[in-house]
């Protein structure tokens, strides 16, 4: 019985990261982008999200700094990861993050950072 419990525990622990990674991908911003009033320098960022449909919380993280923004999730496949910006006031305002299997349309007006 202990052996069965041990196997079940090992399977659960090894499978947990696979399930967590489903809602986490990386993206590279080739140039600085703004999310709300926060400017993100060019670089590699980890993007995670929780929720579905119109009520998703997206966290953009790099080097211990995080930015959380509400978004709308669209399930769609992309050949390449990327992002869509809108040029506003001389800066590129981040509108959408396109990942392997989803697009995240950001509501930058309600972004909050740490």
Low-confidence stretches: 4-9, 11-21
Radius of gyration, CA atoms, in whole angstroms: 17 Å
Question: What percentage of residues falls in helices of 4 or more residues?
Answer: 10-25%
Strand content: over 45%
Q: Give the total of domains.
A: 1
Number of helices: 1
- The best one-word shape is globular
Overall structural class, as computed from helix and strand content, comes to alpha+beta
**DSSP E strands, number:** 10
- How would you classify the quaternary structure? single chain
In this structure, how is the largest beta sheet organized? 8 strands, antiparallel
Order of helices and strands: HEEEEEEEEEE
Distance between the termini: 46 Å
Compute the average pLDDT: 84
What does this structure look like?
With 114 residues, the chain is an alpha+beta fold. The chain has one domain. It is 18% helix and 53% strand. It is built from one helix and ten strands. Strand 8 (91-98) and strand 9 form a beta hairpin. The model is unreliable at 4-9 and 11-21 (pLDDT under 50).
């Amino acid at each position: 019985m202990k052996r069965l419990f041990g196997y079940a525990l090992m399977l659960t622990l090894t499978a947990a990261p696979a399930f967590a990674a489903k809602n986490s991908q990386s993206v590279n911003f080739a140039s600085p982008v703004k999310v709300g009033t926060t400017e993100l320098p060019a670089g590699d960022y980890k993007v995670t999200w929780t929720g579905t449909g119109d009520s998703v919380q997206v966290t953009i993280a790099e080097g211990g700094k995080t930015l959380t923004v509400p978004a709308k999730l669209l399930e769609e496949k992309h050949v390449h990861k990327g992002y869509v910006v809108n040029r506003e006031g001389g800066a590129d305002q981040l509108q959408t993050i396109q990942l392997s299997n989803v697009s995240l349309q950001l509501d930058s007006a309600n972004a909050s950072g740490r």
